[in-house]
Design a protein that fits this description.
The protein has about 280 residues and is an alpha+beta fold. It has five helices and 15 strands. The protein is globular.
């Protein structure tokens, strides 16, 4: 089974009597699901009051009795995410500790087989996360190249922080409502806007998978244009490539289109990049 070394991540321990209630008011996922699925990692978003993305994360139940919940995200979000979570921790019996330096993250493709692991389809297929103490010497351990994991996630339409996911986008634009948003758990910061988007059933852009017809070097992000139409206005943006698969965003004016030209950095066009809608 392929095993990947993800490495250090932003990692916060939320603990105390009110930990579940507090965190449930901060993120899009229903934290109470962890109590029914204690050996699973759950994807979630942290949004602002306008429903715009501030972080994409995973939560884990470490101890059900106290309780203790870990929240993991990209390392570049360490300071901003800790400040965001701490800002609303006022009268709750809960604490947040930054333990980012204490652990490394690994991910293995396949069914969960170890009690210390958390089932999580991080790259779009069955797999599990494991946290290793950062003091462990991993030099003798074998890990598959991360390029293999990147290809998996692109093939399965999974957005990634720094590529498809950046601060300020609306989570439904990236298809995150399928596994990272609960519409039944009650209030959280940004909930009203995200619920309104669901009711309207419309977004101005959406994440889409593409199959590329050429393996030419592509500098990302790259603009895409509807084949056969003027190239004055882009129909979307390509954000990740693992040939022949790619991910990107389409503007709503191009939702019904199937074939696109790709504008390369040198101004030339890569034609016949045929789009495939995300499942």
């Amino acid at each position: 089974m392929p095993r990947f070394f993800i490495g250090p991540r932003s990692l916060f321990s939320i603990h105390g009597t009110d930990a579940v209630r507090y965190l449930n008011g901060q993120i899009t996922q229903d934290v109470r699901r962890l109590l029914q699925e204690p050996h699973r990692g759950l994807s979630t978003c942290v949004t602002d009051a306008k429903g715009k993305l501030q972080a994409y994360a995973t939560i884990y139940l470490i101890n059900a009795e106290q309780p203790v919940i870990w929240l993991e995200a990209s390392m570049e979000l360490r300071e901003s995410l800790f400040a965001r979570l701490s800002r609303y921790l006022i009268a709750d019996d809960a604490e947040i500790d930054d333990i980012s330096d204490d652990f490394f993250l690994t991910h293995t493709i396949g069914e969960q087989t170890e009690g210390s692991a958390f089932a999580h389809s991080r790259f779009g297929v069955a797999g599990f996360d494991q946290w290793l103490p950062s003091t462990i010497d991993i030099s003798a351990q074998f890990f598959s190249p991360l390029e293999q994991a990147e290809k998996l996630r692109i093939q399965h339409g999974i957005p990634s922080w720094g590529h498809e996911l950046v601060e300020g986008i609306l989570p439904p634009e990236a298809g995150l409502e399928a596994y990272a948003i609960s519409y039944h758990k009650g209030c959280y910061i940004g909930q009203e806007v995200i619920s309104r988007i669901k009711s309207a059933g419309k977004t101005n852009r959406r994440l889409q998978r593409f199959t590329l017809a050429s393996a030419s070097n592509i500098s990302l992000p790259a603009s895409i244009f509807i084949t056969g139409q003027s190239h004055e206005k882009a129909a979307g943006t390509l954000t990740s490539v693992a040939f022949p698969d790619a991910l990107g965003f389409l503007h709503k004016s191009a939702f019904q289109e199937k074939e696109f030209d790709l504008q390369l950095a040198d101004g030339s066009n890569l034609t016949n990049a045929v789009s495939c809608i995300v499942d």
